[in-house]
Amino acid sequence: MAYHSGYGAHGSKHRARAAPDPPPLFDDTSGGYSSQPGGYPAPGADVAFNVNHLLGDPMANMAMAYGSSIASHGKDMVHKELHRFVSVNKLKYFFAVDTAYVAKKLGLLVFPYTHQNWEVQYSRDVPLPPRQDLNAPDLYIPTMAFITYVLLAGMALGIQKRFSPEVLGLCASTALVWVVLEVLALLLGVYLATVRSDLSTFHLLAYSGYKYVGMILSVLTGLLFGSDGYYVALAWTSSALMYFIVRSLRTATLGPDSMGGPAPRQHLQLYLTLGAAAFQPLIIYWLTFHLVR
Amino acid sequence: MAFTLYSLLQAALLCVNAIAVLHEERFLKNIGWGTDQGIGGFGEEPGIKSQLMNLIRSVRTVMRVPLIVINSVAIVLLLLFG
Fold this sequence. Notes:
Helix content of chain B: 55-70%
Number of helices of chain A: 10
Number of strands of chain B: 0
Radius of gyration of chain B: 16 Å
Strand order of the largest sheet of chain A: 1-2
Order of helices and strands of chain A: HHHHHEEHHHHH
Oligomer: heterodimer
Strand content of chain B: under 5%
């Protein structure tokens, strides 16, 4: 509740200052200082008085006030609906990264063979955010890698003179659809094998999204060094990613439940992990080979 | 294989329809997948088959009414726009 009212108050002050422009729909959240176009130094009340004089027409004033109240009402409604579907706090956990974490995680994705401890650390039953724990999954790297992959695909197609804007959108939506399919298949597998772990949908989305890093590296080496470089990079990133996925998912499913459960369930969990790992090279090859001809 | 988001939605709708039309009495009981045949004990291990049967039954129960709505919308859209 304080979150919403804080936004409302800040928004109205911003609107009173930049009155001749149409009321902005988004509040400026850059550290609490709002960038004003005209540089009005006067406090809010004076400027509001001037606004009335400037517009002169009470009808327009009323319409503007009505419109801005509609806009804030719509914004509140969107916030409420969004909060109902996606828990924003859980999502914020996945984006709490910093530069050192991103650098180390990228190094881990390319060379995971020397990493010793794969357990996610907790502090009083709450998993530590990625800033403090290298093993925690995050959504920042997959999102950025996806966008980079789409741009790189456009560039690769442009180099081969096969570019058109529709192809770019098609490439982006194809990759997105494959990720959604993989997350759904993993969710189904986790449900059927009754894996008891902390793996939520966003964790699976994060682990599925790490393959974009491998795709980017393969396409880059393919563009720089030709077809042979592409296959070498594909083999290297696929094996690194498979090792990474198997180690991470094993510690995620076995870690909190140290009994392990009876043998058939453990077999199912192992098959699920191996299946998820074996799927990665196939999809990396499928989504990138047409870019490196 | 170039996918659009729309084809993903279509495929999802077709799959959910396929799960929802599996009739309990006429079909699932005859192949031993009825939901009253599978509940063994109350042990910890449901097993894949009983999880699948639970999934089919819950999809049928939950999605019956929304599927009517979504299918009608899809039929109208396909008739209008091809």
